[in-house]
Amino acid sequence: MGRQREWHRPARRRRPMRAGVLIAVLGSGTCLIGVAGLAAWNAQVVLQAGGPVRETADGFFREVAAGDTDRAYERLCAEARGRWSRAGFGSWVRTPPLVSGYEIVDVSVSTRAGRPRGTVVVRLNRDGGGSEERELSVVSENGSWRVCGDPF
């Protein structure tokens, strides 16, 4: 009789397509996790910033309505302080009709180019009974919120 052949496992076919798809899926999954993490961080920054933005605007207008322009000037961002001197800002704020009161109507925070930025809608009450709504820009600068732009 003849010799019996040893059993050998049949050769497996190579499947390069399967490996490519697996690598593509893992890469896409990693990117999606990164995007989700960035979105969560962005949402956290925006949600946590609403209170400090409101407090900054509230303090600024409280000081303006009380006539304390020096303390209000300290709440301005570097760009705004570069446009106005302390004395110039004080005389500009004291120009009639003066701000006698205010009401914060809305606060919103968004990010632009990865930097948080707040917008506060405020109703200014003026001497003589007039009132107007203004939009105030509030930016994060050196770890604190500052009033920027033209508040009046």
Question: Could you provide a short overview of the structure?
Answer:
The protein is an alpha+beta fold. The chain has 4 helices and 4 strands, in the order ααααββββ.
Task: Give your account of this protein's structure.
With 152 residues, this protein is an alpha+beta fold. The protein has helices at 16-66, 69-74, 78-83, 86-93; strands spanning 99-112, 115-126, 131-141, 144-148. The chain has a four-stranded antiparallel β-sheet with strand order 1-2-3-4. The longest helix is centred in the first third of the chain and has 51 residues, at 16-66. The radius of gyration is 30 Å and the shape is rod-shaped. The N and C termini lie far apart (108 Å). The model has no long low-confidence stretch (mean pLDDT 83).
Intertermini distance: 108 Å
Helix proportion: 40-55%
Largest sheet: 4 strands, antiparallel
Which descriptor suits the 3D outline?
rod-shaped
- The averaged pLDDT comes out at 83
| SSE pattern, N- to C-terminal | HHHHEEEE
Radius of gyration: 30 Å
Count of runs of 4 or more consecutive helical residues: 4
List keywords for this structure.
152 residues, four-stranded antiparallel beta sheet, 4 strands, rod-shaped, single chain, alpha+beta
List the helices and strands and how they pair.
Elements: H1 16-66, H2 69-74, H3 78-83, H4 86-93, E1 99-112, E2 115-126, E3 131-141, E4 144-148
Antiparallel strand pairs: 1-2, 2-3, 3-4
